[in-house]
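Q: I'm teaching a short session on how sequence maps to structure, and I want students to see two examples side by side rather than one. Could you give me a first protein with its sequence written out and its structure tokens following it? Keep the formatting plain so it prints cleanly on a handout.
A: Of course. Example one:
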Amino acid sequence: MKSRATSLVEAVGTWSDGAGDIAHARARAAAAGHAPRLADALVPLLGTARSAVAIVRDAQYGGILTSSASVLVVVDQWRELPDGTVVAGGTTVDVRLVAARPRWRVVEVLPARPGPAASALSRTARAVLSDGRIRLPYAARADVASGVVHDSVLGLLVSLAQEHVVDVSVIRSGHPHVVFGTSRTSDHSRGRAVDVWALDGRPFVLPANHALAATALRYAVAHGAYNVGGPVRPSGPEYFTDRTHQDHIHLGLPR
């Protein structure tokens, strides 16, 4: 499932010889075994650069049902401009798939659409953006810079970073608007949640790091989180676990 999602994003976002246009992107999608039309939605990864390389930083489950799924692909991209300058960037893409044989099939791609940068930010938002121990992908950084993330979430990140290096995957943009498979608006959409895929370089998808995940979940609850999930479930009403949260921890803060 993740392999199918990431192969599309990396294929479309990587090119040489000035082939960053839609027509060439469609051809790359087809060569990777996907419907060519899917490239049309990945405009944030295209452009007039001489060449580009896209590398997935993290691929996280956004939701898993029996016959459909969401994979959140966090991608970094480097573009070589015509004058030889290399510019770094990236985005997060919500890739939707359906079960098929012999492998899952991508049916829709939804790139992150963070809002514009705010003219003024809270002290906590500025602290998050300047803290090298909070590793934010491009879409998540733009979310913080837009001022839409609640200070309760940002404060938790600042506090957690005093104990660990924090690898964030998704805050708001790039995450499904509703909890996958339901009609309930996600706390992410309200700027009230953050997903973290690793602490101190130790990814939660590995069973060896599940005890660390449990420690982080308890830490979040002790610092005000009310809805926290991950690959393990400590005892208490604030905690949950399911198939979707086997590769990250979700930290939801009160409304």
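Q: Perfect. Now a second example for contrast.
A: Example two:
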Amino acid sequence: MSQPQFDSIQLAEQIARHEPWLNAVRTEVGNVVVGQEILIDRLMIGLLTNGHVLLEGVPGLAKTLTVNALAGAMTADFSRIQFTPDLLPADLIGTLIFNPQTNEFSPKLGPVFANLILADEINRAPAKVQSALLEAMQEKQVTIGDQTYKLPDPFLVLATMNPIDQEGTYTLPEAQLDRFLLKVVVDYPTMEEERLILDRMASSVAVTATRPVVEPKTVIAGRQLVDMVYVDDGVKDYIVRLIHTTRYPESINPALTSMIRSGSSPRGTINLTMAAKANAFLKGRGYVVPQDIKDLAYDVLRHRILLSYEAEAEEVTSEQIIASILEKTPVP
């Protein structure tokens, strides 16, 4: 990879000015959530790229608590929506209310009109609700009746999903999964972290709220700098090779061909680049290095590689396929 341009060094100086609020958010969320540094960074990457994040993990791993803590650290509108099988699209986006005095319909906007949306247990809602959320996620707008309403900026959907309980759940459509910038798998804490959780949270007065330390306009300013982060041509080619290999894995391992039903779309190429830029921003750099790509590849690609029935029968996971692709693809 060639040396970063000089203007990217100047960009790093501008990025350094954003370090105080980044550290303040991490500290504030860390006062409530023990560990989960990777999860917190991935949520901040979502904020800095205007990309939605899907969190998958068993109950009790502080997924909802972390999102609540992040929302509390911002002076932004926040809505928590508990997805259930009987949820209706109107419960999400709003509806038209008839006023008998004026003999007219007026819109009543739903909870989706907020900066941060926590879609709790998103896979419990039926297809009609998912389609309503899909327009909001992709188009940043909502249609009620014959009127279209723009959603606020920033607008970010942070969704949680339980991978174990299948009763009363609906499989998310591939088109909706592709709308998520990242799919983050939340794992169990270490023994040391769990002991700290015990000391901090085993009380009826445990701290679960955060105070606002950053405004949305500051996040938007940081987002503009993320767009300016330099990506070398060699790194761009590396990203394209990785994505291309998810579609044609025989170039590195013929055995993978029967394991992949469908590879990543070009949206994966775009999102991996954007996420890598945001990762560089969080690390105080004005340029992307190949390690940024490796760090984000699992979160960007795990929900974009569709496994074949043969892979599921042999218990091959998308993570194993991504690991194989990263190992075999030459690094610039």
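Q: What should students look for in example two?
A: Point them to this: The mean pLDDT is 85. Also worth mentioning: The longest strand covers residues 94-99.
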